[in-house]
Write a structure and sequence with these properties.
There is one protein chain. The protein is an all-beta fold. The protein has a single domain (about 1-130), classed as Immunoglobulin-like. Helices cover about 0% and strands about 65% of the residues. Strand 2 (about 10-15) and strand 3 (about 20-25) form a beta hairpin.
């Protein structure tokens, strides 16, 4: 299994045709003050899975600060992947995780780490900056 796409955004969905629609991708939060609470963000990933990946898996999303400390409990789920319909061709598996009221205590870089069965598939940075008067970072 591998991660083909990962993003943080304002909203996302999967169309009836299986396409991932992403709205408002970002990698930086400019905050007037810290700590900051971000009301809603969405972590989106597209995983590619082959026949060997069929079965049950534990998926987790961890958010860590620059010292690699967890900033919140990990989001975890058990999923079951079916055998791809065409032999020898990996299937795409969309993952959309909505995160409400994310707390960021300090400025700096936070890492969103997506793991499947304990193995990290991707790591996505989010930068939190404090703005000065007038909105400039």
């Amino acid at each position: 299994m591998k991660c083909q796409l990962a993003a943080l955004c304002e909203a996302a969905n999967v169309s009836a045709a299986g396409q991932i629609n992403i709205l408002g991708e970002f990698d930086t939060i400019n905050a007037a003050q810290v700590p900051v609470v971000w009301p809603l963000m969405v972590f989106v990933a597209k995983l590619k899975a082959g026949a060997a990946d069929a079965g049950r898996h534990t998926v987790s999303l961890r958010v860590v600060d620059e010292d690699m400390r967890l900033v919140a409990p990990p989001l975890e789920a058990e999923v079951a992947l079916a055998t791809p319909p065409i032999a020898g061709i990996e299937s795409g598996w969309p993952l959309i995780l909505r995160i409400a009221n994310a707390h960021f205590q300090t400025v700096g870089t936070y890492l969103f780490q997506l793991r499947v069965d304990g193995t990290m598939l991707c790591e996505l940075p989010l930068h939190v900056r404090q703005t000065q008067a007038g909105g400039q970072p």
